[in-house]
Predict the 3D structure of the following.
Amino acid sequence: MSVAPQEPALPEPDTTPESVPPEAANNSWRARLAGNLAWNVASDAAMRGTSLWMAFACARALPVSGFGRYAFALALTQYVWLAGDAAVNSAYATRELARARGAQEPGAAALGGLFWSARVLAASALSVVSGLALLAWPAPVEQKLAIGGAMIFFLTYSAFADWALRAAEDFRGLALANIAGAVALVAGTLLVLPHFPTPAMATLLWASSFACAALVATPRLLRRGVITRPQPGFMPAWRAHARRSAVYSLGAVAAIGCAQSPVLLVGVFGDAQAVGLFASGYRLLIAMIGVFSVLWWPLFPVLARSKPDSRTFIDALSSLAGMMLLVSVPATLALTLWPREILTALYGARYAGGAAALRVGALALPLYTASGLFEQACLAVGGEAVRARVNIVALALMVGAAAVLVPRYGSVGAAATLPMAFALNCGVYLVTLRRVLPKRAMAHGAMGALLLSTALGAVWGIARFLTWPAIPVLIAGGLLYALLALAFRLVPLPARMQQEAAS
């Protein structure tokens, strides 16, 4: 089998027959994006929400040091996985398969099968190498067992072709797969973890949940012709993609390094107790970071098939700019005003010591959303090399700053590296993509969200000054904020919901 890669180029603009008015075409992609966004919200709420819920359960079932070993194992495993992801980077696979399907190329399904096979093979090799390295590593036995349980993730996640579902814009299928994984994770946490309350069992349950998601996704992809069954002799065709995928992966290594390195650095400079306290708040930040990918992935296929000066490209970025602020600013407000109350409510009183680090780290969320949106635009126009350079510089800044700050300020110093890195990312992207980003349109699209979130901040600030109870204020304010965002149409809705709202 031979599937040659396309040369890097700007995506072709959307073409609409003359019989279809431009307004209808514009509404078509908007409705599709809104529908995909709705399914992707359900998808990520299922998988990431239950993963976060499991962190709460583990924090209560395990000692603080045990929770620290659990969090360290997950961070290390997800970072090591990038070596397997380098075989065919998931974002690269999404873009190339989306373009092939959009152009109705006859080899699109074979291309999907090639990517799938290469990822599974790379995960198998990585499992063997990592297992041997783990045996030789002079770490405590409990930590090694926790990492060993988490390493099952290499095989289960490589088999879960979520990238193919995104490329086909089958976000309903992605939601069903993630819901299956979430159900398995919840069932295992409730039925198994109470009888075996160890970090190793917790990481094993987390890694195994992706196998259930793969069991739902794989038959659906094969039946719909998105991918073919693995075929022998795919290595020569894969090598043609390896160089371009490696550039994608280099940027991903640095990007995920920026997200995961604070936990790893605290683990290097501190003990398991310190990691546990820091990770309690940091798991909330990682969960929020994961929420923003809910918005990015439905956007990416739209951007990849549009030229930067097209109406679709401009409208898509400006619409999502408002959504980023709509979610990130309230999260930052809540986590900076009431960090101690949120931690004790979710994890228990033992984790109140992580409040200072959570307050500092939360400042990075709006910066992260902005840099992430710029990153999607950069990748869509073939700028993976630019993305790699930006993220490598940001990671170098984080590691350098952490070497100075963590020994002196502990977990607060590690948290402070986050806003530094993402502020740098935003600045570099704004300069590099100055001819691509529709900055005025994006600023206009974000104005409504900025005004509404400013009003919420004023209300919450007064409540904090008056020492009102944190949790009821957060819930009431969040619900009112969501209702106002829907009333002012700041959230993209599927076409049917838009029609009902208009009537």
Notes: The CA atoms of residues 195 and 459 lie 45 Å apart. The longest helix spans residues 22-61. The chain has a mean pLDDT of 81.
